[in-house]
Design brief:
364 residues; alpha/beta; 2 domains; two-stranded antiparallel ribbon; 13 helices; 38% helix; binds pyridoxal-5'-phosphate
Length: 364
């Protein structure tokens, strides 16, 4: 049996460091927005290569709060893609703005930049490129379009699947105006519960995020603006500080396993790696017109798979209001039918990768 993922192995590999961190927090008597969060924010900002990082409650809330900090609200439009976690679109709709969707490219499965221009209107306030599966979207043309003199559009990077990935030598999250990360347990950098972060070089935006995440408080009990409660807790921050020290090694292990799949697998379409950056393979996603049969074939051989994601957002019941129909965004719709994720995590043995590749190749 090879499960799709197994988070216990990661815990075992750094157990004493994690146990020490958790005990330190429990004994400290301080559990929300304290020294651990402050230290993690500094370390994570340094890692990404930005001036400011702010811990929040989840990746969804990171996207939502980042949009609010940019001033996005009712009457605005925000452009993103339909093949992403539903959170990306949910965060846009939570602000009252309208989500406008552009399709993705066949091979990279990332935002099709050529469709952006047409989707842009005078109401467009922000673009959210999603660095899906651990590979950066092509940010330069997106930044160029957004920041052209006639437009004043913000770029919010959705980095929830790409901690540590690079674009032209810079870490994702440091290219756009602001960026959102998730620390959901299965992400490349995962907490033991929910968590998220917003990063930016812009001090004013960082300040607004800081207020929004805690009741709009400039000082305790004085709300300057209308805010909410979305905080990273001390326990998760202490755990993330430990894990951040291992992130580069884990991402390297992911890339090695992905490279082995790419070398060995022959019977399905492999993910395309772009030369503009280094991906971190949050997922290894292959394509097959007979995807459902492939899943059954692998399951019969004890190999777990998952589909990220089986339904594009524009065809889901909650988002019919966006005004798209079947056929509106054909590449994303095809991908939803044809993609499947193979097991890929740092602790997966290379022998397991070889036997999974062999099992895929036995699928005729
Ligand atoms: C996981 C994920 C999110 C949401 O993060 P949560 O922490 O689960 O709220 C947003 N966008 C993408 C691309 C994701 O993969």
């Amino acid at each position: 049996m090879i499960p799709f993922f197994d988070l216990t192995k990661q815990y075992e590999s750094i157990q004493s460091e994690l146990d020490d961190a958790a005990l330190r927090v429990m004994k400290s008597g301080w559990y929300i927005l304290g020294n651990e969060v402050k230290a993690f924010e500094k370390e994570f900002a340094d890692y990404v290569g930005v001036k400011h990082a702010l811990g929040v409650g989840s990746g969804t809330e990171a996207l939502h709060i980042a949009l609010l900090a940019l001033g996005v609200g009712a009457g605005d439009e925000v452009i993103t893609v339909p093949n992403t976690a539903v959170a990306t679109v949910a965060a846009i709709e939570l602000t009252g703005a309208r989500a406008v969707l552009v399709d993705v490219c066949d091979d990279t499965m990332l935002m099709n930049v050529e469709q952006l221009e047409r989707a842009t209107t005078s109401r467009t306030k922000a673009i959210i490129p999603v660095h899906l599966f651990g590979q950066s979207a092509d940010l330069d043309p997106i930044m160029k379009l957004a920041h052209s003199a006639s437009r004043n559009i913000f770029v919010l990077e959705d980095c929830a699947q790409a901690h540590g990935a690079t674009y032209r030598g810079k870490r994702v999250g440091s290219v756009g105006d602001i960026a959102a990360f998730s620390f959901y347990p299965t992400k490349n950098l995962g907490a033991y519960g929910d968590g998220g972060a917003i990063v930016t070089d812009n001090a004013e935006l960082a300040q607004r995020v800081d207020l929004l995440r805690q009741y709009g408080w400039r000082e305790r009990y004085t709300s300057d603006i209308k805010g909410m409660n979305s905080r990273l807790d001390e326990m998760q921050a202490a755990i993330l500080r430990v894990k951040l020290r291992h992130l580069d090694d884990w991402n390297k292990a992911r890339r090695e396993r992905a490279a082995l799949y790419t070398e060995l697998v022959r019977t399905v379409t492999l993910p395309r790696e772009m030369s503009y950056g280094e991906p971190v393979y949050h997922l290894y996603v292959v394509q097959s017109p007979r995807r459902d049969e492939l899943v059954v074939h692998l399951k019969a051989r004890g190999i777990g798979t998952m589909i990220q994601y089986p339904h594009t957002i524009h065809l889901q019941p909650a988002y019919t209001n966006l005004g798209y129909r079947e056929g509106s965004l054909p590449v994303s719709e095809r991908l939803a039918r044809e993609i499947v994720s193979l097991p890929l995590y740092p602790e997966l043995s290379l022998d397991d990768v070889r036997s999974i590749a062999q099992a895929v190749n036995e699928f005729e």
